[in-house]
Amino acid sequence: MLSTVGQRTGSAYVSATLLTCAVWVLCGVLTANAQTHDVQISINSQNTSRITIEGRLSAGAEDWSFRNVHAGVSGLGERISGLSLNDDNGASVVVRKLTPGEYKSDAKAFGFRYEIKLDPPAANAAAAHVSWLSARYGVLMLGDLLPVQSSTRASVKLKLPANWGVSSTEQKTSNSVYEVSDPEQVLFFVGENLRERGFRDGDFSFLFATIGAWAFDDGDAASLAMNLFREHRRVIGRRPRKNVLTVVAPFPHPAESSEWSAETRGATVFLLAGRAPSKNVALAQLSTPLAHELLHLWVPNDLTLSGDYDWFYEGFTLYQAMRVAMRLGYLNFHDYLKALGRAYDGYFAAEGHGQFSLVDASRRRWTGAEALIYNKGMLVAFLYDLTLRQQTQGTKSMDDIYRKLLRHSNRAGERREGNLVVIETLESMPGMTEFTTRHVESSMSIDLPASVQPFGLLANRFGARTHVSVAETLSRAQRSVLAGLGYSAQP
Ligand SMILES: [Zn+2]
To answer: Does residue 27 register a pLDDT over 50?
Structure first.
């Protein structure tokens, strides 16, 4: 089963093994003559996990298909019941169920009505990836609620129980309708007495939303998210295309205080977290997944790339998010070395570690290679950044890769193949061609002790654990590279 829950038991650290998430990558481009869903979603106030969806599809359809699987969560189509369809004159149209989530009507139908059972998924980890509602709050993701039609827009009206509110990246029109240009990229966080904190920066807005009681104040968590966001934006040099919403909510079922699960969809970061008992521990625990998820707003969500380059936007992004958390003081150089050791251990333990290149592993993400993508991806990112800093006397770093990728990603242009573009960018840095071929495109095993020795680092393996430390004597160049990463010789 897909594990999307991170666990931490000590101080804040980054672990590729346990830090996994999902992003919703854009697949299509909207056309001018897009179908439009005109829908009303009503939450039953007596039984909040039951919703009714009714509406109209502008050009009609005979095939009615609902998403059945997302991010390893399956059986979504089985939640739907009572689908009824009408033709353009309002007359009933016969519809047959083919498989869960797949229906065919006898004639073209325009009007539709159905119910969905939105009980929270049994596994907490799945709750970041699909729609669900509890008695007090939940999430509505249009991607798994509306029929899947190519090139669809949606006008969405939400009918909520009393005292329930909505947080979303979408703007409401005067008649309380959300005009959604790409339904699969949008989610609505709904609940009783939701709380929001907003930041404005010129024409750009950053919204933080939460519910329930936490050890931290809303303002502390909102500032943490905003600081991480600002640092990403500073490094990358541009903001994401849309206003951003970050949601931090409790899991629907009881959870360990250190658990979390997240999904970044379009311009929304949706993060479910356990409740840590103290403010500092809770904020430290939030910083790593938040840094990673917020970076997804740009990579991959703001890149016009396609294909399976998950090794980069997950594995490398773990590394880059950790560097940002270090710069802001949430993690230190000691955490950096620990994370390097863990990435190696995770890589070593992952299925197929000496067998698949990063590119090959990404094609197998949902069929067993997920751990390899995160762990090997992060490990290679460590080595890439160290090598690049050494090659350029510290004048270039991983920051330059992210900046360059975004600079060359033309929002209006055609989607290019992700592996091709990222590999090209990695190779474009001085002296990095051979490294990229060897570590990204070839399946050659990584020997950490030999790989880090040139940087003045020692990797020793004790059983299944690798301990990384700084060598007693360092050359001037080694000292300079490590200092650039936060190392200080002072005790
Ligand atoms: Zn991720």
So the answer is: no
Q: How far is the CA of 42 from the centre of ligand 1 (A)?
A: 32
Residue 272 Cα to ligand 1 middle (Å): 14
Asked whether residue 1 carries a pLDDT value surpassing 80, the answer given is no
Contacts of 483 (CB under 8 A, 6+ apart): none
Quickly list H helices, 350-369.
Answer: 358-363
So what's the ipTM on this one? 0.99
**Lowest pLDDT segment from 241-255, 268-282, 346-360, 454-468:** 346-360
Which has the minimum average pLDDT: 5-9, 50-54, 248-252? 5-9
Give residue 399 CA to ligand 1 midpoint distance, Å. Answer: 18
Domains in the chain (CATH in brackets) are 23-292 (2.60.40.3650), 324-484 (no CATH)
**pLDDT tens per residue across span 262-293:** 999 989 999 999 999 999 889 888 888 899 99
Other CB atoms within 10 A of residue 258 CB:
18
The Å distance, Cα 315 to ligand 1 centre, comes to 8
Q: Report long-range pairs for 362-365 (Cβ below 8 Å, ≥24 apart).
A: 362/308, 362/309, 362/310, 362/311, 362/419, 363/308, 365/308, 365/310
CA of 45 to the centre of ligand 1 (A): 35
Instruction: Quote the ligand 1 centre to 326 CA distance (angstroms).
Output: 18
- Phi and psi (nearest 5°) for 311? -55, -35
Distance CA 278, CA 52 (A): 40
How much helix, strand and coil, in percent to the nearest 5, is found in the chain?
A: 35, 30, 40
> Across 119-172, where does the E strand assignment appear?
132-133, 137-141, 152-159, 164-167
Query: 22 CA to middle of ligand 1, Å?
Result: 6
Q: Count the neighbouring beta carbons within 10 Å of the beta carbon of residue 193.
A: 11
- Spacing, Cα 277 to ligand 1 middle (Å): 26
Q: Would you give the DSSP letter of residue 354?
A: T
At what angle are helices 370-391 and 398-407 packed, to 10 degrees? Answer: 110
Q: How far is the CA of 154 from the centre of ligand 1 (A)?
A: 27
Kindly give the distance from the C-alpha atom of residue 311 to the centroid of ligand 1, in angstroms, as a whole number. 10
Is the distance from CB of 238 to CB of 297 less than 8 angstroms? Answer: no
Distance CA 418, CA 87 (A): 42
Burial (Cβ within 10 Å: 0-12, 13-18, ≥19) of residue 153? middle
**What tens digit of pLDDT does each residue of 331-346 get?**
899 999 999 999 999 9
